[in-house]
Design goal:
The protein has 237 residues and is an alpha/beta fold. The chain folds into two domains: 114 residues, Response regulator (Rossmann fold); 110 residues, Orthogonal Bundle (Arc Repressor Mutant, subunit A). 38% of the residues lie in helices and 22% in strands. The chain has eight helices and 13 strands. A five-stranded parallel β-sheet has the order 2-1-3-4-5, with helices on both faces. β7 and β8 form a beta hairpin. α6 crosses α8. The chain is elongated.
Length: 237
Protein backbone atom coordinates (compact mmCIF):
# COMPACT_ATOMS: atom_id res chain seq x y z
CA UNK A 1 0.00 0.00 0.00
CA UNK A 2 2.88 2.35 0.75
CA UNK A 3 3.88 2.57 -2.91
CA UNK A 4 0.51 3.82 -4.12
CA UNK A 5 0.49 7.24 -5.79
CA UNK A 6 -2.12 9.78 -4.74
CA UNK A 7 -2.93 13.15 -6.29
CA UNK A 8 -4.83 15.61 -4.09
CA UNK A 9 -6.66 18.45 -5.86
CA UNK A 10 -8.20 21.26 -3.81
CA UNK A 11 -8.11 25.04 -4.19
CA UNK A 12 -8.17 25.50 -0.39
CA UNK A 13 -4.47 25.44 0.60
CA UNK A 14 -5.26 24.50 4.20
CA UNK A 15 -7.20 21.39 3.20
CA UNK A 16 -4.85 20.52 0.34
CA UNK A 17 -1.73 20.73 2.50
CA UNK A 18 -3.36 18.91 5.40
CA UNK A 19 -4.43 15.97 3.23
CA UNK A 20 -1.09 15.97 1.42
CA UNK A 21 0.99 15.86 4.61
CA UNK A 22 -1.25 13.34 6.32
CA UNK A 23 -1.22 10.84 3.46
CA UNK A 24 2.49 11.40 2.92
CA UNK A 25 3.07 10.29 6.53
CA UNK A 26 1.09 7.12 5.76
CA UNK A 27 3.76 6.22 3.22
CA UNK A 28 2.01 7.17 0.01
CA UNK A 29 3.75 8.93 -2.88
CA UNK A 30 2.04 12.30 -3.17
CA UNK A 31 1.44 15.13 -5.62
CA UNK A 32 -0.97 18.07 -5.36
CA UNK A 33 -2.71 20.66 -7.49
CA UNK A 34 -4.81 23.71 -6.72
CA UNK A 35 -6.94 23.90 -9.87
CA UNK A 36 -8.12 21.99 -12.91
CA UNK A 37 -5.21 23.01 -15.11
CA UNK A 38 -2.67 21.86 -12.55
CA UNK A 39 -4.67 18.68 -11.93
CA UNK A 40 -4.62 17.70 -15.59
CA UNK A 41 -0.88 18.31 -15.85
CA UNK A 42 -0.13 16.37 -12.66
CA UNK A 43 -2.43 13.56 -13.78
CA UNK A 44 -0.49 13.19 -17.03
CA UNK A 45 2.96 13.31 -15.44
CA UNK A 46 2.28 11.51 -12.15
CA UNK A 47 -0.16 8.82 -13.33
CA UNK A 48 -1.77 8.42 -9.88
CA UNK A 49 -3.54 5.35 -8.52
CA UNK A 50 -6.03 7.54 -6.66
CA UNK A 51 -7.18 11.15 -6.98
CA UNK A 52 -8.63 12.98 -3.97
CA UNK A 53 -10.61 15.58 -5.88
CA UNK A 54 -12.48 18.65 -4.69
CA UNK A 55 -15.72 19.25 -6.58
CA UNK A 56 -15.50 23.05 -6.49
CA UNK A 57 -12.43 24.26 -8.36
CA UNK A 58 -11.87 27.82 -9.65
CA UNK A 59 -11.38 26.83 -13.27
CA UNK A 60 -12.99 23.41 -13.58
CA UNK A 61 -16.02 21.37 -12.60
CA UNK A 62 -14.87 18.55 -10.36
CA UNK A 63 -17.55 16.21 -11.67
CA UNK A 64 -16.42 16.72 -15.26
CA UNK A 65 -12.77 16.37 -14.26
CA UNK A 66 -13.60 13.11 -12.51
CA UNK A 67 -15.26 11.73 -15.63
CA UNK A 68 -12.37 12.88 -17.80
CA UNK A 69 -9.82 11.10 -15.60
CA UNK A 70 -11.91 7.95 -15.31
CA UNK A 71 -12.34 7.75 -19.07
CA UNK A 72 -8.58 7.70 -19.60
CA UNK A 73 -7.33 5.29 -16.93
CA UNK A 74 -8.63 3.00 -14.22
CA UNK A 75 -7.77 5.59 -11.57
CA UNK A 76 -9.86 5.68 -8.41
CA UNK A 77 -11.49 9.01 -7.56
CA UNK A 78 -12.52 10.11 -4.06
CA UNK A 79 -14.59 13.29 -4.28
CA UNK A 80 -14.41 16.01 -1.63
CA UNK A 81 -17.23 18.49 -1.36
CA UNK A 82 -18.99 20.84 1.00
CA UNK A 83 -22.31 19.70 -0.39
CA UNK A 84 -24.31 17.08 1.46
CA UNK A 85 -27.32 16.94 -0.87
CA UNK A 86 -28.07 13.42 -2.12
CA UNK A 87 -28.47 14.64 -5.70
CA UNK A 88 -24.86 15.87 -5.67
CA UNK A 89 -23.65 12.51 -4.42
CA UNK A 90 -25.60 10.66 -7.10
CA UNK A 91 -24.18 12.99 -9.74
CA UNK A 92 -20.67 12.26 -8.48
CA UNK A 93 -21.19 8.51 -8.68
CA UNK A 94 -22.70 8.85 -12.14
CA UNK A 95 -19.56 10.65 -13.28
CA UNK A 96 -17.40 7.73 -12.15
CA UNK A 97 -16.48 8.64 -8.56
CA UNK A 98 -15.61 5.65 -6.40
CA UNK A 99 -16.34 7.29 -3.06
CA UNK A 100 -17.47 10.57 -1.54
CA UNK A 101 -16.44 12.59 1.52
CA UNK A 102 -18.37 15.63 2.70
CA UNK A 103 -16.44 18.45 4.36
CA UNK A 104 -15.64 18.70 7.16
CA UNK A 105 -14.24 15.19 7.52
CA UNK A 106 -11.83 13.53 9.92
CA UNK A 107 -8.38 12.40 8.84
CA UNK A 108 -9.19 9.01 10.30
CA UNK A 109 -12.15 8.62 7.97
CA UNK A 110 -10.04 9.79 5.04
CA UNK A 111 -7.40 7.19 5.86
CA UNK A 112 -9.99 4.39 5.98
CA UNK A 113 -11.63 5.42 2.70
CA UNK A 114 -8.29 5.76 0.88
CA UNK A 115 -7.02 2.44 2.18
CA UNK A 116 -10.24 0.66 1.26
CA UNK A 117 -10.23 1.99 -2.30
CA UNK A 118 -6.63 1.01 -2.89
CA UNK A 119 -7.32 -2.53 -1.68
CA UNK A 120 -9.40 -2.96 -4.81
CA UNK A 121 -6.17 -3.01 -6.81
CA UNK A 122 -5.61 -6.73 -6.47
CA UNK A 123 -4.06 -9.17 -8.97
CA UNK A 124 -6.47 -10.53 -11.56
CA UNK A 125 -6.64 -14.32 -11.54
CA UNK A 126 -6.61 -16.42 -14.71
CA UNK A 127 -10.32 -17.13 -14.29
CA UNK A 128 -11.05 -13.44 -13.95
CA UNK A 129 -9.19 -12.74 -17.20
CA UNK A 130 -11.60 -14.82 -19.26
CA UNK A 131 -13.69 -12.88 -21.71
CA UNK A 132 -17.43 -13.27 -21.22
CA UNK A 133 -19.52 -13.38 -24.37
CA UNK A 134 -23.31 -13.46 -24.28
CA UNK A 135 -24.58 -13.26 -27.86
CA UNK A 136 -23.80 -9.67 -28.91
CA UNK A 137 -22.58 -8.58 -25.46
CA UNK A 138 -18.86 -9.08 -24.80
CA UNK A 139 -17.07 -8.26 -21.55
CA UNK A 140 -13.26 -8.22 -21.66
CA UNK A 141 -11.73 -7.90 -18.15
CA UNK A 142 -8.16 -7.61 -19.42
CA UNK A 143 -8.87 -4.63 -21.66
CA UNK A 144 -11.69 -3.54 -19.33
CA UNK A 145 -13.87 -3.12 -22.38
CA UNK A 146 -17.51 -3.92 -23.05
CA UNK A 147 -18.93 -4.18 -26.54
CA UNK A 148 -22.56 -4.54 -27.64
CA UNK A 149 -23.38 -5.26 -31.27
CA UNK A 150 -19.62 -4.77 -31.90
CA UNK A 151 -19.86 -1.20 -30.58
CA UNK A 152 -17.82 -0.17 -27.52
CA UNK A 153 -19.98 0.68 -24.50
CA UNK A 154 -18.63 3.57 -22.44
CA UNK A 155 -18.69 2.54 -18.77
CA UNK A 156 -17.13 4.08 -15.69
CA UNK A 157 -14.66 1.94 -13.74
CA UNK A 158 -17.26 1.01 -11.13
CA UNK A 159 -19.93 0.29 -13.72
CA UNK A 160 -17.55 -2.10 -15.45
CA UNK A 161 -16.64 -3.83 -12.18
CA UNK A 162 -20.30 -4.25 -11.26
CA UNK A 163 -21.36 -5.57 -14.67
CA UNK A 164 -18.40 -7.94 -14.87
CA UNK A 165 -19.10 -9.30 -11.39
CA UNK A 166 -22.79 -9.91 -12.09
CA UNK A 167 -22.05 -11.48 -15.49
CA UNK A 168 -19.45 -13.75 -13.90
CA UNK A 169 -22.22 -15.26 -11.75
CA UNK A 170 -25.16 -15.58 -14.16
CA UNK A 171 -28.48 -16.39 -12.55
CA UNK A 172 -27.34 -15.75 -9.00
CA UNK A 173 -29.26 -13.18 -6.99
CA UNK A 174 -27.15 -10.68 -5.04
CA UNK A 175 -28.31 -8.41 -2.26
CA UNK A 176 -27.19 -4.78 -2.40
CA UNK A 177 -24.99 -5.24 0.68
CA UNK A 178 -23.33 -8.26 -0.94
CA UNK A 179 -22.63 -6.35 -4.15
CA UNK A 180 -21.12 -3.49 -2.18
CA UNK A 181 -18.86 -5.89 -0.30
CA UNK A 182 -17.83 -7.81 -3.43
CA UNK A 183 -17.47 -4.96 -5.94
CA UNK A 184 -16.53 -2.04 -3.73
CA UNK A 185 -14.46 -4.56 -1.73
CA UNK A 186 -15.19 -3.04 1.66
CA UNK A 187 -18.06 -2.24 3.96
CA UNK A 188 -19.41 0.90 2.31
CA UNK A 189 -20.72 3.22 5.02
CA UNK A 190 -23.05 5.20 2.78
CA UNK A 191 -26.53 4.59 1.42
CA UNK A 192 -26.91 1.20 -0.27
CA UNK A 193 -29.00 2.87 -2.96
CA UNK A 194 -25.70 3.74 -4.62
CA UNK A 195 -26.00 0.24 -6.13
CA UNK A 196 -29.33 1.21 -7.72
CA UNK A 197 -27.70 4.28 -9.26
CA UNK A 198 -24.97 2.24 -10.94
CA UNK A 199 -27.38 -0.48 -12.06
CA UNK A 200 -29.57 2.20 -13.63
CA UNK A 201 -26.63 3.68 -15.52
CA UNK A 202 -25.52 0.26 -16.83
CA UNK A 203 -29.05 -0.54 -17.97
CA UNK A 204 -29.21 2.68 -19.98
CA UNK A 205 -26.12 1.54 -21.88
CA UNK A 206 -26.80 -2.16 -22.52
CA UNK A 207 -30.54 -2.77 -22.30
CA UNK A 208 -32.88 -2.35 -25.26
CA UNK A 209 -35.73 -1.32 -22.95
CA UNK A 210 -34.76 0.00 -19.52
CA UNK A 211 -38.38 -0.28 -18.36
CA UNK A 212 -38.19 -4.02 -18.95
CA UNK A 213 -34.52 -4.95 -18.53
CA UNK A 214 -33.64 -8.35 -19.94
CA UNK A 215 -30.08 -8.83 -18.70
CA UNK A 216 -29.81 -7.13 -15.32
CA UNK A 217 -33.00 -7.97 -13.53
CA UNK A 218 -34.40 -6.71 -10.25
CA UNK A 219 -35.45 -9.38 -7.78
CA UNK A 220 -37.93 -7.51 -5.64
CA UNK A 221 -37.19 -7.48 -1.96
CA UNK A 222 -33.75 -9.01 -2.53
CA UNK A 223 -31.47 -7.34 -5.09
CA UNK A 224 -30.22 -7.99 -8.62
CA UNK A 225 -29.15 -10.79 -10.91
CA UNK A 226 -27.61 -11.10 -14.36
CA UNK A 227 -29.82 -13.17 -16.63
CA UNK A 228 -27.85 -13.99 -19.79
CA UNK A 229 -29.60 -14.31 -23.14
CA UNK A 230 -30.90 -17.80 -23.92
CA UNK A 231 -28.13 -18.47 -26.39
CA UNK A 232 -24.63 -18.04 -24.99
CA UNK A 233 -22.12 -17.88 -27.81
CA UNK A 234 -18.97 -18.73 -25.87
CA UNK A 235 -16.93 -18.08 -22.81
CA UNK A 236 -13.16 -18.13 -23.00
CA UNK A 237 -9.96 -16.22 -23.23
Amino acid sequence: MASAKILVVDDDPAIRNLVYRFLLKQGYEMESAEDGKGARLAFEQFNPDLVVLDVNLPDANGYDLCQEMQSRTGVFVLLLTSRSDEADKIRGFNQGADDYLTKPFSLGELEVRVGALLKRQRPVTVAEQQQLIFNTLAIDPVRREVTLESEVVSLTALEFDLLHFLASHPGRVWRRAELIQKVWDYEYVGDQRVVDVHIGQIRKKIELDITQPAMIQTVRGVGYKFDPPAQVASEGA
